[in-house]
Design goal:
- Helix content is 38%, strand content 26%.
- It is built from eleven helices and twelve strands.
- Strands 1-2-3-4-5-12-6-11-10-9-8-7 form a twelve-stranded mixed β-sheet, sandwiched between helices.
- Strand 8 and strand 9 form a beta hairpin.
- Helix 2 packs antiparallel against helix 7 and helix 6 runs antiparallel to helix 7.
Length: 307
């Protein structure tokens, strides 16, 4: 029997152990990460936490709905056991019974079978397995990636893995292609600063003549390192700064049984950048549903059938 638990009913230690033991652990599903990114969330849980599924939700006009939180690419059902379509179907049914409408992304290990009534969108993520020697990982780089890495070295860029969250977010604010309110950047600074203080986040970047010109925020869990937020200014772009940032992170993680998770993308130019480091595409599924509309359609169909 699947239960719904409010946030204060969840045993964090038990929860995080299940997420960590699952075959597709991500930072997104850990309790500490959801607290920072989702705000209001609960969970669908099988007895003794055999299977767990985080659910972020909000309320509009008195109606509760699910949504995919910021910086949470994938959630889904986690377990150290096989999560097949039958299990996913039960959790999805429970989700629809509790929320009138919503948007939800499952993780790479959750494969929903396409069938009538399921509106499934398939998205592409890119991951790099890091368990090899750095030299072997580097052999997987594309020629273009190697050229850009050499350009970054020749330009005199200096790498640092101790950039402040505030400095990177301020740079993001200045060079964001889609401008946001100041409150947005204040929120990012607070969110990622608390994670960094807890040891879950590192901010890496490169400087030119002492000035930060490219950098990224990486979040860590046992099996994955997530490339969450990045930015480059004009000098960073001209000198291929992000190529050096990612290469140095790969170098620091070589031989560890982890994955570098690039977080997508479906955009061809961005995908090409990730593939340049030898990353492989992975598919994850996202669903949207409107239970109220579905019920109305069913009522209309029944009326026509018996009219």
């Amino acid at each position: 029997m699947i239960r719904y638990l409010q946030r204060d009913q969840i045993d964090d230690q038990h929860w995080d152990m299940v997420v960590e033991a699952s075959g597709f652990e991500t930072v997104y599903a850990h309790s500490w990460y959801l607290d920072a990114c989702a705000g209001t969330w609960g969970a669908l849980v099988a007895p003794d936490y055999e299977y767990v599924m985080p659910v972020a939700f909000g309320k509009k006009f008195g109606i509760k709905y699910t949504y995919q939180p910021r910086f949470c690419q994938q959630l889904g059902v986690h377990s150290d056991k096989l999560v097949d379509d039958e299990i996913l179907g039960k959790f999805l049914l429970e989700l629809k019974n509790r929320f009138r409408f919503g948007d939800y992304a499952f993780n790479e290990g959750n494969r929903l079978v396409k069938e009538r009534g399921r509106e499934i969108t398939e998205n592409t993520n890119y991951t790099l397995k890091l368990g090899s020697l750095y030299g072997e990982l580097k052999q997987g780089y594309s020629d273009n990636c190697r050229r850009n890495q050499q350009r970054a070295i020749r330009s005199g860029l200096e790498f640092s893995d101790d950039i402040s969250v505030w400095e990177l977010v301020q740079m993001k604010r200045q060079h964001d292609h889609r401008k946001q309110l100041d409150a947005h950047y204040h929120s990012l600074t607070g969110m990622f600063s608390s994670m960094k203080e807890a040891g879950h986040v590192k901010v890496c970047g490169v400087k030119l003549k002492g000035q930060l010109c490219a950098g990224a925020i990486f979040a860590y869990c046992k099996k994955r390192v997530h490339y969450l937020l990045s930015v480059s200014d004009t000098a960073g772009k001209e000198n291929s700064g992000m190529f050096m940032v990612i290469d140095r992170v790969i170098q620091s993680l070589a031989e560890k049984e982890m994955y570098l998770d690039f977080e997508g993308s479906n955009i061809p130019t961005v995908a090409r950048f990730f593939k340049g480091f030898g990353a492989d595409p992975q598919v994850y599924q996202r669903i949207s549903f409107n239970s109220a509309a579905s019920k109305l359609i069913q009522i209309v169909r029944n009326t026509r059938r018996h009219g």
